[in-house]
Amino acid sequence: MLQPPHQPLQVAAVPPQRAPAREDEAGPWHAEAVCRRDEAGLFFAPSKEPTAARLAREEAAKRVCARCPVMVECREHALLQPEPYGVWGGLTAAERRVVLARRRRREVELRKAAATERIAQAG
Q1: How far apart are the first and last CA of the chain?
Q2: ∠ CA 50-99-63, rounded to 5°
Q3: Position 3 in a domain
Q4: Contact 71, 90 (CB under 8 A)
Q5: Is 11 within a domain?
Q6: Phi, psi of 91 (to 5 degrees)
Q7: Which domain holds residue 56?
Q8: Residue 67 domain-assigned (yes or no)
Q9: Phi first, then psi: what are they for 23, rounded to 5°?
Q10: Residue 81 included in any domain
Q11: Which residues form the 4Fe-4S Wbl-type domain (predicted)?
Q12: Which residues participate in the annotated binding site for [4Fe-4S] cluster?
């Protein structure tokens, strides 16, 4: 079957959901997520999305995240998994990489400080 020469941009498939970061008596955190009621295409990029469209879509997704009661849980889930695509907890994949890099640097600094303290106490 022949395909039309110019098809509209298709939204990328949403990656399968991994296990939630935590569950409580009320159920998994993502059951309360505001994004469950919005179109997934807002949170995941279509292929070959122009930069201006991507930025506008990401800002719209972040506005949804800003009013979500489980934004912190969502963000931590995306940082702990780590989720490589989409807007999670109000952060894009690039922003999550920055947060993770900062966390790693802080952990290294804390380990160095603890080691220095142990050496000072021993010596």
Answers
A1: 79
A2: 50
A3: no
A4: yes
A5: no
A6: -125, 140
A7: 30-122
A8: yes
A9: -130, 145
A10: yes
A11: 34-98
A12: 35, 65, 68, 74
Query: What does the block give as tokens for 56?
Result: 């506008």
pLDDT (tens digit per residue) in 94-117: 999 999 999 999 999 999 998 898
- Give the tens place of pLDDT for each residue, 18-56: 433 444 444 588 888 988 876 778 999 888 999 999 999
Average pLDDT over residues 1-22: 40
Helix pair angle (71-80, 51-66), 10° resolution: 130
SS (H, E, C) 37-87: HCCHHHCCCCCCCCHHHHHHHHHHHHHHHHCCCCHHHHHHHHHHCCCCCCC
How many domains are contained in the chain? 1
What tokens were used for 20? 């939630």
Enumerate the known binding-site residues.
35, 65, 68, 74
